[in-house]
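Proteins fold reproducibly. Consider a sample protein:
=====
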Amino acid sequence: MKICKRYFYGIELLIIEAFVFLFSLVSCSKNNYPVKVPNKNVISYSTIPDYSNADYWAASPFKNDPSDSLPAPLSKNKNYNTSADVFFIYPTSFTNSSDTAYNAAINDWTLNNKTDYSSILYQATVFNESCSVYAPRYRQAHIRCFFIPAEKAQPYFDLAYEDVKNAFEYYLAHYNKGRPIIIASHSQGTVHAARLLKEYFDGKPLQHQLICAYIIGMPVPVNYFSELQPCSDSTSTGCIISWRTFKTGYEPDYVKEEKFKAIVVNPLTWNTNEESVAKKFNKGGVLKNFNKIVPHVVSAQVHGNILWTSKPDFFGKIFLRNPNYHVGDINLFYMNIRENVKTRIQHYNPN
């Protein structure tokens, strides 16, 4: 997918991400999740990930990791049926302004802990009731790559994608064994997921193994794929789901300037219709407290190339002033996504 800086969200996103990471660390400390101790002596920007080593997977069914976690209300009634796999590509966590590198070191455990206890804990867990979760570590591009000219940034995104691609090929060769697949991603992860879908699924034999793709937080043009189409309802399979979340009434200038039609699926109805859907149909979000499900947290309405929602309804919402809800693209609809994953797996037919 072509990188263009007008797609991105400005410095306020970094502020939001900092708060989310802080809250995730608080949640992790309360739940006693294992944390690797950083060893700065082993950090090397030239190290290539070896996907036969479990350390190079942020999430894997072959080790204990934060993707195995459940919000407390769900832990009372565990009902796992992991008949499918999800290959999850996490968003940018390489945001430290003091780091001069343009791609992350794969063995920077400070950064890896940040990834694991933010996006893996808060996002990848949405799939764990119905899927075995695979999330490769990759040499992600630094957040600054979204704010420099595209031609300069592209090599750094290409390097990140090369890791994702190698991880996926390793997964196919050693783990998949013909099982149905969900591709899922957020933000920078969606840049790479779209390329992966185009290279390996779109009009290819592997398309028959695709349950669906939840590629969220970045614009995906409707004509980007040759055969893969947007999902039209809650049960469609072999299709694409995407959205970007903003407060109702707000449309950024860079969205207004877009010259293409983006895929936008409403996560409360799972179709592309533009009617407003009341928040009573929102089955619950997981916000700063991982162990609390907030019911009816937002409404949702497809508006052109983006998804409009009401202001999230939670204690402390008075302090939420930013109308860009990018950081909550998945978490505002946590329970609806969780339920929909199960539904699509049940309706999947490879023939």
Observations:
- The chain has a mean pLDDT of 89.
- Residues 150-176 form the longest helix (27 residues).
- The two ends are 29 Å apart (CA to CA).
